[in-house]
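User: Predict the full complex structure for these chains.
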Amino acid sequence: MIHKIREWALIGMFNRMRIKKNIAISESGFIFNPTTGDSFSTNPIGFEIINLLKEEKSKDEIRAFILDRYFIDESTFEKDFYDFSTLLQSSQIAEE
Amino acid sequence: MEKLRYERPVVKKLNTGMMNKFGTRTEYNPVTHIDGVSVKELISTYGSPVFTISERTIRQTYKDCKRAFTNRYPKVQMAWSYKTNYINAVCNVFHQEGAWAEVVSGFEYNKALLNGVPGNKIIFNGPDKTDDDLNLAIENNSLIHIDHLDELYRLIEITKEINKRPRVAIRVNMDTGVYPMWDRFGFNYESGQAWDAINKIILNDQMDLVGLHCHIGTFMLAASAYAIAASKLADLAFHIHSKFNKKITYIDMGGGFASKNNLKGSYLQGNVSSPSFDDYAEAICSALLNAEYSKQELPILILETGRALIDEAGSLCGTVLANKRLSDGRRATIMDFGVNILFTSFWYDHKVSPAQEFSHYTEDGVIYGPLCMNIDVIRESITLPPMKKGDNVVVHSVGAYNMTQWMQFIAMRPNVVMIDMEGKHHLIRNKETLSDLNDKEVMPAYLKDFSI
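Assistant: Here is the predicted structure of the two-chain assembly.
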């Protein structure tokens, strides 16, 4: 099943996702989008993923980093990453 | 390097200065233990979900309530409302504290007898009493609270047949200034129905009218309504004495005291909006003391409050089954308990606490139960920290009505555990199994076989 999820993810929509250039992110997890005027907050792990995306890390690199750093199994991360990526896109923080 | 605790990544839009329909964050610390017993231990021992009852909370709440009334009034008797929670171990904690039994059906009546409650300390309320129920109650010298004229006439017939004098009270409904007025139980005060019933009972001389009863509502947020009810019952008792020279020995104010739960749609939290026991006691006792009784003639005050005595003692420990994102962006968390066992989630915004460590980040969302039914919603809007599959939660203040109104629907009823005064846990009701359901069914022979 995990293999299948990864396969879907590889052909899916979040492989080349990146944080929009004009998004401002503070070290406390405060996010500001000057285009829309919207502001957001994120938790520490969300902050780490956003920074990795900003550094244009691939999804595989992000997965490896998180699995190495946190107590979490691969399938849970895949599920949460999908959800988080959807939120970042719908919030106009990230784009493909 | 040791790995860090994982929390699902979240991003939340900030709306400065706007009302948040999900409310503010309420959870600051996890509820990892109930009366010193680990939630994880309870779930690993008894499965998930599992109801827990705190004996310590029951006894403390009972004492608080009793004290509020006995501080103000010399003759107070509590009667445990079986319909609120009739698990025998729960009933017996109240009986050990001195409560009589208040029942509203034949099966509850027999439950009280089997628990060892003397027949003359059982109050029999309710509109549905069969001939067998009435005969048994008369035989045991129980207090029969007459609900309607049909019951009164049937009782008169039965007393003639068996030649015994039952002890009875009439149930009185009245305008106490609250809306909606509960006029379905008993005889109306203002229209003269109550006096009509009293005249019939006393002039018929087949039974002893010893009390007056009312049940003015449920989750009553206005203690003042009880003052009006107590005044009207006291007035009735006084005039019965004047007219018939007959003393009414007790006034039963029924139940209806609010617990500290949060009513749906209520602006204020329950612990702010619900009157205290002292508020209710002040209203009721003052009304009785100010009535036209001498000190020696004061009637016994009986209280049948159920919800306010047991709600806070009950908790439901459960587990996150899944998380999903709804089409409108809200987070949905699916728990392993639904409205089938948590009936009160139709009435209350139950407080739900995570049972493990969490960060201060939260998400707005909805909590669903596991039933394949759209109505299975535990909380329509709640702000909670991110939780993952397998995490545990504690739903607070579920002791009243859930363990009597729960349904065997889609899933079976779970274990119920009591945590005693020493922090030991005891199974007090076994979870149900398929055989509990199937054993009641009968298959006609011609339907036994089929081929598909």
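Residues 7-11 of chain A have pLDDT under 50 and may be disordered.
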